[in-house]
Amino acid sequence: MPYSHHSHSGQFCAHAKNTLEEMIQEAISKGFHTFSLTEHIPRHIEDFYPEEELAYTEASLAKLFDDFTGEAARLRDEYSPKINIFIGFETEWIRPLSLTLIQEILAKHTFDFFMGSVHHVHTVPIDFDKAAYERARAKAGGTDERLFEDYFDSQYEMLQALEPPVVGHFDLIRLLSDEPDAEFNGFNGVWERIHRNLEYITSYGGILELNSSALRKGLAQPYPCLPICEAFQRMGGRFTISDDSHSTDQVGTNYFRLLDFVQKARVKHIWYADRNAPRKDNRFPNAGFSSIAVSELAQLPFWTANQ
């Protein structure tokens, strides 16, 4: 009975599929213990993705997010006998106005946690397609190394401003780079920034997401890659796991490979959202985080039921 702290549905995300309820039903069918609903926050029109430009206005995208919170609460209550549902959101950190949008969302709704993610550098998406990635790289100075440095600097700004309980796909910048499995080899300035960001996450008690979506997108390792995981462990950092699913057929995808990676990285415990855990962040009164030993996680019925 594993956990996922990051998911999207076609009902509330233009680049996903299936309804929110169908996503939950799929998680139940696969024996998930915990499944978290974390749709993207609404954005200003200049930051719409191409699939959103003809479908939404700023007002309708904001209403869609409000509708998500209501439907998520309804489904959480309806399915509570079968699965633990947690309600959060995934940040966008694009320009100074991003902070205002996130603060307004946190003031308007009550969440269990949120996922702190960066998908843009110099206001350009870096995981949408190769053409957009190359535009961002050009704005950064023309090399992957410079773009990586700017990505982790932007992430550091987000971390300082928000201190997200969970940090999403820490090294997403790898995805469309020229050598996505190179582990930032030889990029000393990049590694200095990575260590700085990991130290800051550790300092406020944040949790780093081990995200299996990198595997279904063709990378050899999940987010983050092994050297980052090892560095975070040396700092005493905590990890959780997620599938970052965008459709029912992605729920739990590559979790066997993710477990293999967790064991290879010698992670000892996995943390998961828990309504009975102590609250360490007064922004989120309804849930804390508990942990399970990886040795115990590996013995759960999920792994035999989904072979």
Would you kindly provide a written description of the structure presented here, covering whatever features stand out?
- The chain has twelve helices and eleven strands.
- The protein has 307 residues and is an alpha/beta fold.
- Helix 7 (188-204) links the parallel strand 7 and strand 8 (207-211).
- The chain has helices spanning 20-29, 50-53, 58-78, 97-108, 130-140, 144-162, 188-204, 213-216, 226-234, 255-264, 294-297, 302-305; strands at 3-4, 34-40, 84-90, 115-116, 120-121, 124-125, 166-167, 207-211, 238-242, 269-274, 288-293.
- The protein has a single domain (3-305), classed as Metal-dependent hydrolases (TIM Barrel), CATH 3.20.20.
- It comes from Lindgomyces ingoldianus.
- This is Histidinol phosphate phosphatase H.
**Annotated CATH topology:** TIM Barrel
Largest sheet at a glance?
Answer: 4 strands, parallel
**Strand line-up in the sheet with most strands:** 4-7-8-9
Considering the protein shown, what is the CATH homologous superfamily? Answer: Metal-dependent hydrolases
In N-to-C order, the SSE pattern is EHEHHEHEEEHHEHEHHEHEEHH
Low-confidence stretches: none
Structural class: alpha/beta
Number of helices: 12
CA-based gyration radius: 18 Å
Overall strand count: 11
CATH class: Alpha Beta
Protein name: Histidinol phosphate phosphatase H
Q: What would a concise description of this structure say?
A:
It is built from twelve helices and eleven strands. The chain has 307 residues and is of the alpha/beta class.
